[in-house]
Each structure stands twice: as C-alpha cells, then as structure tokens.
Amino acid sequence: MLTASESSWTAPSTGLSPRQFGKLITALRCEGADPVRKGRPWSLPLEDRVLLVAAYWRTNLTPRQPAPLFGVSKSAADRIINHLGPSLALQPRRRFRKDTVLIVDGTLVPTRDHTVAEQSKNWARCPSGTTRPGSSRTG
After folding, report:
1. Whole-angstrom Cα distance, residue 41 to residue 74?
2. Which 3 state secondary structure label does DSSP give 125?
3. Looking at the 3D structure of the chain, how many domains does it have?
4. pLDDT average, residue stretch 39-45
5. From CA 84, how far away is CA 54, in angstroms rounded?
6. Is 52 inside any structural domain?
7. Which of 45-54, 69-78, 107-116 is predicted with the least confidence, judged by mean pLDDT?
8. Of these four, 2, 62, 112, 116, which has the most CB atoms within 10 Å of its CB?
C-alpha cells in the first residue's frame, strides 16, 4: 500500500523531494485544507490524500486505479480528488509580462471511434423538415 510515511513513494508519485512535499503539506494545513469537521473523518491522513491526488494527476489514471494502491474505495478516491484538487491547482494569472512565452496543451482527446459507434442522432435535418439551429443547410 502506498503511503507518504515512506518517503521513497514521494518523488515518483509527485515529482517533489520529501522536503518539498513536506512544505506543500504545511502550506495546505495553513490554508485550511485539513480542518476538524463534523461527520466521518477521512480514512487517510492529509499526506496520503495529497499523495493520492498527485499520483492521480501525474499518471493520468482513473480514480478506480490508484484507489486500491492507497487502500480506499474508488468512491473515496474520487471524493479525495474532488476535495483536494482545487487546493493543489495553480491559481490562474490575470496578466503576463510582455515577453512571456505561454505553453498551451493542445492534446487531442479521442471521444469515440465513429467507424464502430452508432451514427449520431443529432441530424442537421429534423424529422419535421426544418433544420436545427446552427445548421447551414436549408429545408
């Protein structure tokens, strides 16, 4: 089972040294990411939850895949990712210097294989003979 208490898992899962990971945990605690609240407590300590989110983002897995590695259900892993993800995400910048180079991720995400999938029901011509909004075809 993966755990943040074993520092050997930190670097491969997060890309951070154990010292940097510790600073991240401290910053998250100061920000209030691990408040004492009513209800059922988290099954994992904050360190392990951060490690789970980092491993999820770094490896591009579904929540179902890292869940057994951390000893939680896929539903719990999904809740952890949804709860801690915004705290770990970078805040967008409003302005950039004039000479700043921005890198845009233009990765294409396949949605489905159109040769195998059923033809879309979103026709340009509706059964009544009229065209749907946005269609350039006329009735």
Report:
1. 17
2. strand
3. 1
4. 87
5. 10
6. yes
7. 107-116
8. 2
In eight-state DSSP terms, residue 131 is B
- Cα–Cα distance for residue pair 129/49, rounded to 1 Å: 55
| pLDDT of the residue at 134 | 53
Angle (nearest 5°) at CA 133 between 132 and 138: 60
Rounded to an integer, what distance in angstroms lies between the CA atom of residue 17 and that of residue 11? 5
In this model, does residue 103 exceed pLDDT 60?
Answer: yes
The distance in angstroms from the start CA to the end CA of the chain is: 62
Q: Name the band, by pLDDT with cuts 50, 70 and 90, for residue 130.
A: low
CA distances from 45 to 28, 50, 75, 129, 130 (A): 13, 9, 17, 60, 58
Band (135; pLDDT cuts 50, 70, 90):
low
- Domain membership of residue 121 (yes or no) is no
Residue 93 Cα to chain centre, angstroms: 20
The answer, as to whether pTM is greater than 0.90, is no
97, part of any domain:
no
Q: Does residue 123 lie within any of the structural domains?
A: no
